[in-house]
């Protein structure tokens, strides 16, 4: 009912001139997300990003939601435009872009096959505590996608070493890391796991 009322409200031309218009778009997008209508949700978040005039932290929240729901569906032009807007707001707020925003942006670039741009973002996250492991993995996947087989295999080996170190920290540390990150390793690595399996199969063939 709330979503229907908001849709009807947003159809009024005069509402677009209201200062609360971007917030109404965000509210509607989140309501649609709860209904698993992610495509419609991303549509209204897209409008909110184009109209929102806010501080970096608020814009960042909307941007991350948009990127998570529209992976593989946004154009490179749109992604770059929203990211530039975010960076400009960060400069105005005298704060750097967050690691989470950079990571989600890098993933979005990867899913639209903007591999060069995605690689730069993932490389910049290599030294971060939270995303070191994940960025290493995506660098390997990108190398494989670009046909750089030897580089990909080396990066996957490095990733496996890092993963072993993480596993050695024990169940308590892993549970803490998982609870502190809303995505979770299992969700993040669903697509790359297929790539690892393919590499393993290729290696078995070459060894025969």
Percent helix range: over 70%
Spell the H/E element sequence.
HHHHHHHHHHHH
User: Mean pLDDT across all residues, rounded?
Assistant: 77
Report how far the terminal alpha carbons are from each other: 62 Å
Uncertain parts: 172-208
| Largest beta-sheet details | none
Please report the total strand number as a whole number. Answer: 0
Can you offer a commentary on this structure?
The protein is mainly α and 208 residues long. It is built from 12 helices and no strands. It starts with a helix and ends with a helix.
Topology (SSEs and partners):
Layout: H1 2-10, H2 21-34, H3 38-51, H4 56-69, H5 76-93, H6 99-111, H7 115-124, H8 132-145, H9 149-168, H10 171-179, H11 185-188, H12 190-207
Helix pairs in contact: 1-2, 2-3, 3-4, 4-5, 4-6, 6-7, 7-8, 8-9
Features:
mainly alpha; 12 helices
Brief characterization of the structure:
It contains twelve helices and no strands. It has helices at 2-10, 21-34, 38-51, 56-69, 76-93, 99-111, 115-124, 132-145, 149-168, 171-179, 185-188, 190-207.
């Amino acid at each position: 009912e709330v979503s229907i009322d908001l849709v009807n409200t947003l159809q009024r031309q005069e509402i677009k001139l209201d200062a609360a218009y971007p917030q109404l778009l965000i509210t509607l997008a989140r309501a649609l997300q709860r209904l698993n209508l992610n495509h419609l949700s991303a549509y209204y978040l897209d409008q909110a990003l184009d109209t929102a005039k806010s501080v970096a932290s608020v814009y960042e929240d909307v941007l991350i939601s948009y990127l998570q729901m529209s992976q593989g569906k946004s154009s490179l032009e749109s992604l770059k435009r929203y990211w530039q807007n975010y960076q400009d707001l960060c400069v105005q707020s005298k704060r750097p872009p967050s690691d989470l925003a950079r990571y989600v942006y890098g993933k979005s670039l990867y899913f639209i096959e903007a591999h060069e741009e995605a690689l730069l973002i993932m490389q910049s996250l290599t030294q971060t505590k939270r995303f070191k492991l994940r960025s290493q993995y995506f660098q390997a996947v990108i190398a494989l996608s670009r046909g750089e087989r030897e580089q990909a295999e080396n990066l996957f080996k490095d990733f496996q070493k890092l993963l072993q170190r993480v596993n050695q920290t024990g169940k308590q540390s892993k549970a803490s890391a998982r609870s502190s990150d809303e995505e979770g390793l299992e969700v993040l690595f669903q697509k790359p796991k297929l790539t690892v399996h393919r590499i393993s199969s290729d290696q078995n063939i070459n060894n025969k």
